[in-house]
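TICKET: design request
STATUS: open
ATTACHED STRUCTURE:
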């Protein structure tokens, strides 16, 4: 009877440890989900600027025509600046997409780990129930 009690207590402790681990992984998984959502918003904003150049002060196609005083040198400088801004935005989009892919991979790994932990908890509970 004493051995049964010891084993039962041991299994209960295992369950508690697994539940703590489960809670931690669940928190990490939710944080990743929040980060992914924030990245989605950022990505949408970056792409929105790209899709609507007329409404944006970053990428106005007519900008070179609006400066009648500046002449061809200023016009060329504006054009070069617009290209640089567009390249920076494209790089930002690429970085954002890479980061999102990395976070999604981490998220899937956490989800898998969570499933494994829950499965382990269930098997320990089953073992406990047999006692």
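STATUS: resolved
RESOLUTION: sequence designed for all positions
ATTACHED SEQUENCE:
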């Amino acid at each position: 009877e004493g051995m049964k009690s010891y084993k039962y207590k041991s299994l209960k402790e295992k369950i508690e440890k697994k539940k703590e681990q489960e809670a931690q992984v669940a928190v990490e998984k939710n944080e990743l989900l929040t980060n992914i959502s924030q990245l989605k918003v950022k990505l949408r904003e970056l792409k929105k600027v790209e899709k609507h150049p007329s409404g944006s002060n970053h990428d106005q196609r007519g900008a070179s025509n609006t400066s009648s005083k500046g002449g061809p040198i200023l016009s060329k400088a504006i054009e070069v600046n617009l290209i640089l801004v567009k390249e920076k935005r494209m790089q930002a989009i690429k970085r954002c997409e890479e980061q999102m892919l990395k976070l999604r991979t981490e998220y899937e790994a956490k989800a898998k780990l969570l499933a494994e932990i829950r499965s382990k908890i269930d098997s320990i509970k089953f073992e406990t129930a047999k006692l």
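CLOSING REMARK: Residues 39 and 100 are 7 Å apart (CA to CA). The chain is about 85% helix and 0% strand.
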